[in-house]
Design goal:
Elements lengths: L4 H42 L4 H20 L1 H9 L1 H6 L11
Length: 98
């Protein structure tokens, strides 16, 4: 009756709902991963490991995993973008503009 408009709308609504559900699942996995990492971080600190050492170990582990998954060039490109992102307070827990 509407030239398939209703079917397109249903398909679009279904796709949007699926994307929203997937986004929600990804967000939950990210929260879970952060909780596990925070717990491991706290455990290392409780054992007397300096925070800088834990941070370096975490960065090494993350970069090694990314290289294994995406390859050296992709990770090098990501690393190249870090200074700009750091200066934009993307990684600051409590950003203060000076």
């Amino acid at each position: 009756m509407w030239g398939g408009w209703g079917e397109d709308m249903t398909a679009t609504t279904t796709a949007t709902a699926a994307r929203t559900k997937e986004d929600t699942l990804i967000a939950e996995k990210k929260r879970l991963a952060l909780a596990y990492l925070s717990e491991a971080w706290d455990s290392a600190m409780a054992e007397g490991v300096d925070p800088e050492i834990v941070a370096h170990a975490a960065l090494f582990t993350a970069l090694a995993d990314l290289v294994s998954t995406y390859g050296e060039q992709a990770v090098a490109d990501l690393a190249e973008s870090l200074p700009e992102r750091i200066l934009a307070f993307e990684f600051s827990v409590d950003p203060t503009v000076q």
